[in-house]
Amino acid sequence: MSEKSRVLLDLDTGIDDALALAYVLGSPEAELVGVVCSYGNVTVGTAARNTRFLLELLGRPDIPVYLGADRPLRASTPFEPPAGVVRIHGADGLGNVGLLDRPCNTPARGADLTRLAGVLYGREFYYVPTGPLTNLARALDALPGSVGELPRVTFMGGALVVPGNVAPCAEANVHNDPEAADAVLRSGLRTRMVGLDVTHQVVLTREETVAWRELGTPAARLFADMTDHYIGIYEKNNPHMGGCALHDPLAVAAALDPTLVTCLPANLRVDIEGPTRGRTVCDPDRLRDAEKDCEVALAVDAPRFLEEFRTRVRRALGARA
Ligand code: CA
């Protein structure tokens, strides 16, 4: 058997991050080597608690969880999710499944970002951030070598040819730390952007959560409750979609199998000033450069991805009685 692909996730563990985690754990070709936590859907402490809880539930308490940044690069105080985000992901970040009485201060290893950069450097590694890019920006800052030599990083975030979701031009992960996203996109690092251009094309319906309940495992029941909460929010806010968008799972899927998406090569930057703050846009200064750092996913084989999602997440949820 060929060697497995090593995956390091960077999650702000809300509901679709949880689905991305299950996707990786249900992927036979992937070995999850750790989860770095971030703020965004929740505080970084809640993200770490949720990640540990989910790893235990999915039978992998051995996987290390690291505490990453608690705030955007330029913020002076730790990030607290706004009320609108709390409504989407629930007060516990996982659809109000009853985690509020679990402490957030469970020991997690502090993310030694210099070490993280060292681990990333020169190794074949799938590093997949599905929250703000603060941890990655800090790691690149501490990098011992050229970022151009790093493996391509697939991230969930941004919107190139569709509107934003938290502002007319801005997607939530980029909007949470535009300076970090801009630093990453202009660093010379090779990236693959899986943003709203494609994630709004992959929709999960209640048909799947019904199937999860039939699996009968504690993990499957919890994931069904959590995801039904998420679908319920979409039914109110985006009734035309017919279900919830699978933002973060599509990013991990495209990292493991880039043929799921079709990409435009481009050099991007992020607007950090004015009313378009948080917009991902082609960088006018590098528009004519022959080399393009970023592959921007603009099309997705939605039926094939959804089939992979069903198979892999069911495998993860059914793996433990
Ligand atoms: Ca996320």
Give a summary of the structure in a few sentences.
Helix 3 links the parallel strand 3 and strand 4. The chain has 12 helices and 13 strands.
Q: Would you give an account of this structure?
A:
This protein has 321 residues and is α/β, with parallel strands linked by helices. The protein has a single domain (5-316), classed as Ribonucleoside hydrolase-like (Inosine-uridine Nucleoside N-ribohydrolase, Chain A, Alpha-Beta Complex), CATH 3.90.245. The protein has twelve helices and 13 strands. It has helices at residues 15-25, 44-57, 83-89, 113-120, 134-141, 172-176, 178-185, 196-199, 206-215, 218-237, 247-256, 302-318, and strands at 5-11, 30-37, 65-67, 109-110, 126-129, 153-156, 191-194, 203-204, 244-245, 261-266, 268-270, 280-282, 294-300. A five-stranded parallel sheet has the order 4-3-2-1-5. A four-stranded mixed sheet has the order 6-7-13-10. The protein has a two-stranded antiparallel ribbon with strand order 8-9. β3, α3 and β4 (109-110) form a beta-alpha-beta unit. α4 packs across α5 (134-141). The protein is globular and about 55 Å long. Residues 12, 14, 16-17, 41, 130-131, 248 line the site of calcium ion. Residues 12, 14, 16-17, 41, 130-131, 248 line the site of calcium ion (CA).
